[in-house]
What we know:
By secondary structure, this protein is an all-alpha fold.
Amino acid sequence: MWSREVRMWSREVLALSRRWLLMMLRERLNLLFSVLQPAVWLVFFAGALGGAVDPRIVGADDYIAFAVPGIIAFTVVGNGVTAAMPLLFDKETGYLDKLLSMPIRRSSLIASRFLFQVGMNSVQALIILLMALVLGVRPATGVPGVLAILVAAGLLTLALTAAGMALACAVPSHGTFFAITGFAPLPLLFMSNAFVPLSAMPGWMEAVARLNPLTYAIEVMRLLVLRGWTGGVPVSLGALVAASSLLLAVGAWQFARQTAERVT
């Protein structure tokens, strides 16, 4: 009985994920720019700043290698805040009510969006790492480290997608959603160690950065690229898991609360 329920739930998740994929494939120009944008950021942004940054401050001779985790996190943030847009439009057009009236589990709606976003962000992270390889960056941990980087990016994706979905359920209209998501990404990014180490920040900014889940995701990826399997990897990964679990719980609670009200 339990295996049958799991199979049915898996079919629902895959069917809904296919819907997200088809929606993305129909906008081919948007897909092209979404895939190529991270590589462009790496080449122009990190390349331009590289000559202006003191290697002693960042703790790396190659600023591009230092910036690779920040670019991956920047990509995840950008995708995370827009991940909930289809759900938001479904809510406003009434299609979400139709989905909720079908004999499917609400968890499959959330899981399908998570699955799609993790897959999309993993592809973009691999493109960034391949571009970094062309530019001479060699991860200190090799292929296993690349897989660990994808795990860290996946955890961050889950956290930000859950936050975006909670916001999409809570706001009264897409205008409010776009106002918040248009403002939030840059402070979230720059209040982390994406482009400068924590030690180079003012004290108040460092304190805020240490509360930011991005900081721990970036720290995991940066250690894997620059240092190897150091003791800081499990510590930062544990902090990332805790932050992601908290945001997932908040997102799931908000989604269940809002959809229950809509069904009622």
